[in-house]
Structures are given as structure tokens and as C-alpha cells.
Prior knowledge:
The chain is α+β, with helices and mostly antiparallel strands.
Amino acid sequence: MDAQLDFHHIGIACRDIAKTLVFYVSMGYEPSPVVDDPLQRVRICFLEKADAPRLELIEPLDGQSPVARTLATAGVTPYHLCYEVQDIEEAVASLRGQRFLLVNGPIPACAMNDRKVAFLFQKNTGLIELVEATRE
Length: 136
Ligand code: NI
């Protein structure tokens, strides 16, 4: 692996962010404002808590949303890990070298300040998201 992957968040598919939030807020997580990303057909809320992994709740905006399929087959569930990388094109190339298929991207994610994201899948690993680090 050439590119360094720094853990960023766990993505959780949910049907209704407001309902799924309740449990995490009761555990002390701070929710971000909810942001719609029409490009990915999802609505997103980040949850943060000191010394705990960052979580991302993802709700489908419509039945065509990729996350709608996840919910239909698996219900509310964690379904991707996201890693931050310095150079997303380089990291995508590196993962493709490890037999990952590029599912989506790199495209700007409006819920993440238009940082570029990409999704890759490999059958022994599952779904991985990459997000490009902000450059100074
Ligand atoms: Ni994510």
C-alpha cells in the first residue's frame, strides 16, 4: 500500500436520521447540522464525541439512492469505513492495484466542504470511502 490511509469515520445507513440520532445523542455524541447531498442522493449528519470514532448517519433522499439498496437488504447498519488521504487519485490507483473496484467518484461532497470523495469495493473488504484532506 503506497498511499497512507487515516481513519476518518464509520458510515451508518439509516432510514431516518432524526430517529437514529436519539441513541447516539444519549451517549454524548454531538450532531452536526444535517446536510443534503443531491449528487449522492443522500442526507448526512456527522456525530462526534471525544475519544470515540466519528460516525456518519446517511439517509436516502429517494428510492434511487445507493443507500436505499443497503437498507432494503441489511436494514439500519454500518456499511462503510472512510479514510482520509492526501492525494485521492493516487490512493484510488493504489486500491485498484489491490483489486478494489471504483464504485463512485472522485467527486466533491457538499456535506464535507466539497472535499473530493470516492467509494471503492473489494469483496474481501467491503466498501471503503476515501476523502481527500484539505490543503492549506
Ligand atoms: Ni462516509
